[in-house]
Design brief:
Helices cover 32% and strands 21% of the residues. It folds into three domains: 101 residues, Alpha-Beta Complex (DNA Primase, Chain A), CATH 3.90.580.10; 92 residues, no CATH class; 125 residues, Dna Topoisomerase Vi A Subunit, Chain: A, domain 2. A hairpin with a 5-residue loop joins strand 3 and strand 4. The chain is globular, with a radius of gyration of 23 Å. The relative contact order is 0.09. The chain has 333 residues and is α+β, with helices and mostly antiparallel strands. Helix 1 runs parallel beside helix 2, helix 2 crosses helix 3 and helix 6 packs across helix 9. It has ten helices and 14 strands.
Length: 333
C-alpha cells in the first residue's frame, strides 16, 4: 500500500529547482548559480543557447531559451517542453511526476542557496582603429563618423573578475581582434561587442537603451521612431537616411525596453514601429511590443536582420524595401 504522507497536491510544495533539474536532466544541483545548456527546444543547437538562471528580484529560478524564444518560470518550462495547453495542465503533470519521484527517493534535499558572484568588467583599454576594423564595419556601410557619433570604440583588452565562494578572486583578460566597446555620451561603458566570437558576442556591463543619448527631441512631435534589435542595426538604419524617423535599440532583442522609457518615447514621437530580426525569436519579440504597447512591427523580408540586409543588398535596395513596408503599414491603418 502506498503511503499518502509522501503525496503532494500543491505545486507550492514542490521545489522549483527540482523541476528544472528533473526535466532538463541537469548534472548539477541548483543552489543559486546560473546554468547554460544546449536548447531542449532545438535539436540543431550546436552552441548552448538556453539559460537557467537565479532571478535575484523574485528569488526564483527561471529560464530563457534564445534559440526558440521561450522563457519564464518552471511551469512555463513544462508547458513548452510537453506542448501543454495551459498552466493547470503543466501543474498537474509536475505534481504527478514529483509523486513518482519521491516514491523512489524518500529524502528530497533541502536547498541552501549560496551567493554566486558573476564576472564583471573591471578594466579595459581603448586602442586605435585598424584596417581590419574598417573592413568589418564598412561591410555594413557603417563608417567612422557614425561609429564616433554612437560612441563605439575598439578595445585593446578588457578584464573581468568575480569573487568565488571561498573569497578568492578569479580574473579573465580578453585580448583579441574585433572587440568593441559601446559607450554612453558621458564615457561610461555599457556593453562589449565581439562579432567574431562563436559563443558569447555581447557582454552587458550596465542597462542602457541604445541610441537614447543621440535622440533629437522635437517639441512638435512630428518624427517617428524605429526600435531596432541592436546598435549595429540602429547605425545601419541611420545610414539609410529615411527622413523623419529616428531609432533606438533595447539591451537586446530578448529584453524589452522598460515601461518608463517607453512612455517617455511615446511622449516624444508621433509613432513607434518595431523592426527586429525576421526569424522566429525576432518576430515573437516584436509581437510582445504589439501586445503590450500596440506598436506596429515590420518584418524585413531580405536577410536575417537589417545590417545583414544592407551588407548583402546595399543601402538603396534596403531603403526602397523598408519604405515600401512602412507605406504598407500606413495603408493598413
Amino acid at each position: 500500500m502506498i503511503s499518502t504522507k509522501t503525496l503532494v497536491d500543491n505545486i507550492g510544495d514542490i521545489p522549483r529547482e527540482w523541476v528544472f533539474e528533473y526535466y532538463l536532466n541537469l548534472k548539477e544541483k541548483l543552489t543559486g548559480q546560473n546554468v547554460k545548456i544546449l536548447s531542449v527546444f532545438n535539436s540543431k543547437d550546436k552552441v548552448p543557447s538556453m539559460f537557467v538562471y537565479f532571478d535575484g528580484t523574485s528569488g526564483e529560478y527561471k529560464f530563457k531559451d534564445f534559440s526558440s524564444g521561450h522563457q519564464g518560470d518552471h511551469i512555463k518550462l513544462v508547458m513548452h517542453l510537453f506542448d501543454l495547453p495551459s498552466y493547470s495542465h503543466a501543474v498537474n503533470k509536475i505534481i504527478m511526476d514529483y509523486e513518482e519521484y519521491i516514491k523512489d527517493n524518500s529524502v528530497v534535499p533541502t536547498i541552501e542557496y549560496q551567493i554566486h558572484d558573476k564576472f564583471k568588467v573591471v578594466d579595459y583599454e581603448i586602442r586605435h582603429w585598424t584596417n581590419l576594423d574598417q573592413a568589418y564595419w564598412t561591410g555594413y556601410k557603417i563608417g567612422s563618423k557614425i561609429l564616433d557619433y554612437y560612441n563605439v570604440s575598439p578595445l585593446e583588452f578588457f578584464t573581468m573578475e568575480k569573487t568565488e565562494l571561498d573569497g578568492s578572486i578569479s580574473s579573465i583578460t580578453v585580448n583579441k581582434k574585433y572587440v568593441y566597446g559601446y559607450f554612453r555620451k558621458d564615457g561610461s561603458l555599457y556593453k562589449i561587442y565581439m562579432p567574431k566570437n562563436t559563443d558569447k558576442k555581447f557582454i552587458k556591463v550596465e542597462n542602457y537603451t541604445q541610441g537614447m543619448d543621440q535622440l533629437i527631441i522635437n517639441p512638435t512631435k512630428v518624427d517617428n521612431l524605429i526600435i531596432t534589435s541592436s546598435l549595429k542595426d540602429l547605425m545601419a538604419f541611420v545610414k539609410l537616411g529615411i527622413p523623419g524617423i529616428q531609432a533606438v535599440a533595447p539591451d537586446s532583442e530578448n529584453s524589452m525596453i522598460n515601461s518608463e522609457i517607453v512612455y517617455k518615447l511615446k511622449s516624444i514621437f508621433n509613432r513607434i514601429i518595431v523592426l527586429f530580426d525576421n526569424d522566429g525569436p525576432g518576430i515573437e519579440a516584436a509581437k510582445k511590443y504589439k501586445e503590450k504597447y500596440n506598436f506596429d512591427y515590420i518584418v524585413l523580408d531580405m536577410e536575417k536582420d537589417l545590417s545583414d540586409s544592407v551588407k548583402a543588398h546595399g543601402l538603396i535596395k534596403v531603403k526602397e524595401r523598408l519604405t515600401e513596408l512602412i507605406d504598407e503599414l500606413d495603408l493598413s491603418r
